[in-house]
Amino acid sequence: MEQVDNRQSVNKLNSLRAAVLGANDGIVSVAGIILGVAGANHSTSIVFMAGLAGLLAGAFSMATGEYISVSSQRDTQKAMLENKKFELENDPEGNFQELINLYQKKGLSKKTATLVAQELTDQDAYKAHIDIELGIDPDDLNNPISAALASAISFTIGALIPLLAITLSPLNWKIPLTFLAVLITLSITGIISAHIGGAKKTPATLRIILGGIIAISITYLIGSLIGSHLH
């Protein structure tokens, strides 16, 4: 039970980390779009429409990619479970010995490993094998729809921050306030991501901030250069 609980905790942390990274993608990509457009054209409506288009395209792209990825993982999990069922039906003795070997690798003596394997096999041989051998809970397989929705929502939340910042700010403050909003939110996502991953917060956060600021600065510079040639 403790092993299952630990695995569920890891899965929750991975999901939270993915959500934070999805929000980070939304912040940087949409900020890059709107600042690039703002560098070339100061029209609030044009900048807003470009940002909204980037938000929608990014959210759907993230959702689609996550759905395909998790669906493939789920198919692989199902195939592994079916294969294990087949092995247990056709070679129960070989699989029993395999279970003993797996527990021995975890540090149990052969005698203890055999007793554990026998007791678990008597209860449910299938669950005994998929737990230690595959690390899969057949009642908690990866859900592609949930993953897709979570990815789209986290991206959208992140993207809304620079979009609202540049849309609602006074004309002369649009660019600096958008940069400030991106800086603050990237700092937050960096700290959260580092905390989840157990990394040192300062270097991990600085990497995220530096990467994001460089990306949006380059797009703003390119937009400004293009805009100067168009006017």
Could you please describe the fold and organization of this structure?
By secondary structure, this protein is an all-alpha fold. It has one domain (2-77, 143-230). It is built from 7 helices and no strands. It has helices spanning 2-40, 44-90, 92-105, 110-134, 144-168, 174-197, 201-230. α2 (44-90) crosses α3 (92-105) and α2 (44-90) runs antiparallel to α4 (110-134). The longest helix is centred in the first third of the chain and has 47 residues, at 44-90. The protein is elongated, with a radius of gyration of 25 Å. It starts with a helix and ends with a helix. 29% of the residues are buried. The mean pLDDT is 84.
Question: Characteristics of this structure?
Answer:
single chain, 231 residues, mainly alpha, 7 helices
Helices and strands, with pairings:
Blueprint: H1 2-40, H2 44-90, H3 92-105, H4 110-134, H5 144-168, H6 174-197, H7 201-230
Helix pairs in contact: 1-2, 1-5, 1-6, 1-7, 2-3, 2-4, 2-5, 3-4, 5-6, 6-7
Instruction: State the helical fraction.
Output: over 70%
Please describe the biggest sheet, giving its number of strands, its sense, and whether it closes into a barrel: none
Please provide the count of β strands. Answer: 0
Structural class: mainly alpha
- From the spread of the alpha carbons, the general shape counts as elongated
Uncertain ranges: none
Count of helical regions = 7
* Intertermini distance: 68 Å
What integer value in Å does the Rg equal? Answer: 25 Å
